[in-house]
Amino acid sequence: MLIDSHVHLDAAEFAADRDAVIARARAAGVRGFVVPAVDRQGFGTVLALAAARPDVCPALGIHPMYVMQARETDLEELDARLARGGARAVGEIGLDHFVTDIDPARQLAFFVAQLALARRHDLPVILHVRRAVDPVLKQLRRSGVRGGIAHAFNGSLQQAQMFVDLGFRLGFGGAMSFEGSSRIRALARALPLSAIVLETDAPDMPPAWARGERNEPASLARYATLLAELRGIDREEVVETTGRNLSDVLGGWMPG
Fold first, then answer.
1. What is the structure's pLDDT at 214?
2. Which of the residues 53, 62, 86, 247 has the least number of beta carbons within 10 Å of its own beta carbon?
């Protein structure tokens, strides 16, 4: 089953035509959508979207690029929301060492706190990892969380295996569409298919054929074809295996 493992359907960019965006994705064969919140304000929005649509899987978390405006009470709210149920993962959380105007110590504090919440509520995590693969791995080993998804993975093959050993699947999407993305394409070929999930990160990370435009979850259909071509395998194998990988890591969730 073709499932978008990372898409921000709650984003303001989709406010005017969200239903049409979802309809286009469904027409392209996309059957499910994992939607991670990025801040406290998004918790209710994401949960409401999932309540209205059985094909939406909600995740709740505070993104590392939003920690400067977040408060410690937001972590208390996250804990309370997770305790009430509904969320299938904690995310989008992690570290971003590419940005220079966000306090790295504050990023780390929120990341560690959210890993602890994931452990407490026995939930997988959806990770943002940008130029911070080794620091993220260090905290994962300490936390004991039960795996999850490393979104938009861009590390080495050795680092990829470390994530896999910790129970993670690795997200691949639009970056594969750029011929210059030789390392990502090589990873997409070399990793076992059992380690991969497909994602769009829409409205962000548009593919090569839509550079500069708003990305949409309908792009996922072409990503499946591209991954099959890179690996020299049947597209249906990619669709079925990546969908099963996602379901496994999310505790058996499948779109309704």
1. 98
2. 86
Looking at residue 95, its pLDDT comes to 98
Which domains are delineated in the chain?
Answer: 3-249 (3.20.20.140)
- Count Cα neighbours of 206 within 13 Å in the Cβ-side half-sphere: 10
Nearest in space to 225 (alpha carbons), one of 210, 207, 213: 207
Largest CA distance in the chain: 49
Q: Give the pLDDT band (50/70/90) at residue 119.
A: very high
Q: Do the Cβ atoms of 246 and 197 come closer than 8 Å?
A: yes
CA dist 216 and 13 (Å) reads: 10
**Backbone angles phi and psi of 230, in degrees to 5:** -60, -35
Q: Please say whether the beta carbons of 70 and 110 come within 8 A.
A: yes
Using CA atoms, how far apart are residues 131 and 155, in angstroms rounded to an integer?
Answer: 8
**pLDDT, tens digit, for every residue of 198-211?**
999 999 999 999 99
Report the distance separating Cα 140 and Cα 168, nearest Å. 10
Secondary structure of the chain as H, E, C letters: CCEECCCCCCCHHHCCCHHHHHHHHHHCCCCEEEEECCCHHHHHHHHHHHHHCCCEEEEECCCHHHCCCCCHHHHHHHHHHHHHCCCCEEEEEEEECCCCCCCHHHHHHHHHHHHHHHHHCCCCEEEEEECCHHHHHHHHHHHCCCCEEEECCCCCHHHHHHHHHCCEEEEECHHHHCCCCHHHHHHHHHCCHHHEEECCCCCCCCCHHHCCCCCCHHHHHHHHHHHHHHHCCCHHHHHHHHHHHHHHHCCCCCCC
